[in-house]
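Consortium newsletter contribution from the modelling node. Members have asked for a concrete example of what our holo predictions look like. Here is one, prepared for the iron/sulfur cluster complex that several groups have been discussing at recent meetings.
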Amino acid sequence: MTNIQLISISSTWMNTLPVTLSLLENHCDDIPNLNFLPYVFHTYKKSILEYMPRQPVDIAGATLYIWNKNRSLKLLKHIKQTNPHCMTIVGAGNAPFYDAEAEYFLRNNPYINFIIHKEGEQPFNQLVKYHKGELDLTQVNAISWIENDKYYRNPLGKFPSLDVPSPYTNQNFLATMQEVDKLGLTRGTVWETNRGCPYSCSFCDWGGLVSQKIRQVPTKRLHEEIDFLVRNMDEVFFGDANFGIFPRDVEIIERVTELYESLDNPRLTVMHTGNAKNTTDRVYKIGQMLTKHNLQRGGVSLSLQTYTDEALANVKRSNIKKETYQELTKKFVADGIAVYTDMIINLPGETFATFLESLETVLEGEVTDIRTFLLEMYPNSAISQQVEEFDIKTKNNLIFKGVVEDENEYTTQVISTYSMNEEEGERLRKFTISLDILHQGKFLYFISKYLKEELGIRYVDFYLDVFENSTGFLKLIQDHVLVMKKFNDGVYNYAKGHIPFDIDWGGGFRKQQYMWTIIAEQSEQFYSDVTDFLQKFNDSKLNDLLQFQKDIMISSDYNPDIGKTSKYEYNWYDYFYNNKPLVQEGHVIKYCDTHIGSLSERIPLKDPSMFMKYASGGRSYFTQRQGSYIHHSIEKLVDLVPT
Ligand code: SF4
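And here is the predicted structure:
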C-alpha cells in the first residue's frame, strides 16, 4: 500500500475545503493500493507541524499559493526528513513555471523532488505510476526536477477532460466538512463549472496557468454538485475565471436558486462569482437571480483594473467601453443588484493622474463597492518576466501571521514602476482608502454628488482636496496608518486598542470597517471639520445639505422604535433619490428603518454594538455594503410634508 499525503492550505481568511486535493485523488482511481491520508487544509491557530502525518508517507504533494507557500514547504521538509524515501511534489500558482525560477526553486529546496507545471491531475497520476514503477520519468508530462545536479523539464501534456467524478463525493473531502464543523467555522468551498480563460492579462497567473481554451464540467455532474452544495456548504466560491461566459451558466444559477427555494433549510448562504467581462446580459440575469434569493452578498463583479490605455496595452488587457460600463453599473444598481469593481494601483504605464481619471469613471458609475489593490507579482504571471522592462520595484507584504515567524505568509507588492514612483503610489493607496471610507462608506457621499452635479467638481478632485487640504480630525483620518496607530495600537486587522461601540469583531476586520466606526463615533467632530472645510465654496445650500448628510447616516443613538424626523430647507431626498431638480421647498423626512440593509441580510437595529458593526460594512471580506451605512429603506420614509 502506498501512503499519500496531500496538502492544500486554504487562504488566510477562511478554511476553504480542498477541492483540488479531492480532484487529484479522484484522478488516481485507476491505480490500485493507494491510501490517501486525511488532507491537510488549514492551520487554524496552530503550527503547521501539528499536522505532521503520524503514518509513514510514500508520496507527499502540496499546492503552493501566495497564502500558504511557507507553511506548505515547511511541512514537506519535515515529511521528507522523517520519511527520507518519500517522493515530494509541488504544484499550483506559486510553484514556479518559468525555467530559471523553477531550477532556482529546486536547487534551493532540495527536499522537493518534482514541480508540476500548470494543471496537476494528469501529471500527478503519472508521478504516482512512476513511483510504483509503472512509468519512467520520460512518460510523465509537465514536470521539472533535478537529477545528478542537472535540471530537467518535460513538456506539457494534453489537458485532460473535466468529465471525471465529482470532487465532492470523495470520502477524504467529506471528512474535511466534519473537521471544519468541529472548529466551529463556516464551510466554504470552491466550485468549478469550467476551466480556462480566453484572455491573457499579464498580471494574472490564472489565464496563463490553466491555459486559454475553456473546458466545461459536464452538466450532469454539475446538477449533482448543485444538490450537494446547496445542502452542505455555507459559502461557495466559483473557481471559474469568467462565470456567465456560457449560456448554460444562467441555467446553472436557475437550478441553484430553484433548489434553494424548495428546501426548508438550505445550508447555502452565499455564492461568490467572478463574472465574465463581456457577457453582460447573462451576468445581469445571474446577478438578478442571486440577489433575489439573497445569495450574493458581495455583488456582481464588473472589474476594470484601469481605463488607462498605456497601462492596458502593457498588461495586454482590454475593457468594455466606459459608457457601456456606466450604463451597466447604473442599471444593475437601480435594479437592486450590487456591483463591485476591482482596480489595480501601480500597473506599468499608470500615473497618479491617469488612475484618478479611471477612478472618476468608476465613481460616476455609482457602483456599490470599489476595491483597489496594489499590483502583486505572481511568480507565474507573464509580467513577472518584465520586471526590468517596466522598472518594477516590489516589497514583501505580510498577509498571514503564523504562530512562529517562519510560518508567516507574504505577497510581493509592486511599489513603483517606470510611470509612477513609490511616493506617488503610496499617496494613491492612502487616498483610495480614504475615499473608500468617505464615499463608499457614505460619510461625504451626498455632498460630493451635489458638488459634482451642481458645480461640476469631479469626485476625485473633491476628495483629493479633502485628502490634502483638510484640518483637524478630518485631516487625521486621511491617513489610515495614523488612525490605526492612534486608535488601535497600530494593528490593522483585529481590535486591540480602542473599540467604538464595544463591537465584538470576532476574528477580525478590514481596517476600513474599523475606521468607519471611529468616524461614526466621533461624527460631531467630523462634521464640524467638514463644515469648516466647505466654507470655501461659499454656498449657503451646503449647510442644509450637511444636515441631510448627517441625518441619513446610521448612528448608534438611532432608536428604531420611534425613528427620527428632520426638517430641511431643500428637497434633498427627491433630488438624490428621485432625480428631481433641487428646489427650496421645506421638507420634513422621517427615517424609520427597523433593520440595516434592504438588499441582503437584514440586521435588526436593536443593539448598537451589533448594528454599528454591520453598518460599517458587513460581516465578511466581501463586505456587504449594499445595505450598510445609511438609512436605506427608502419606501419606509413617510410622506414629504411642506414646512
Ligand atoms: S484577470 Fe481575469 S480575464 Fe484576465 S487573464 Fe486573469 S482570469 Fe482571465
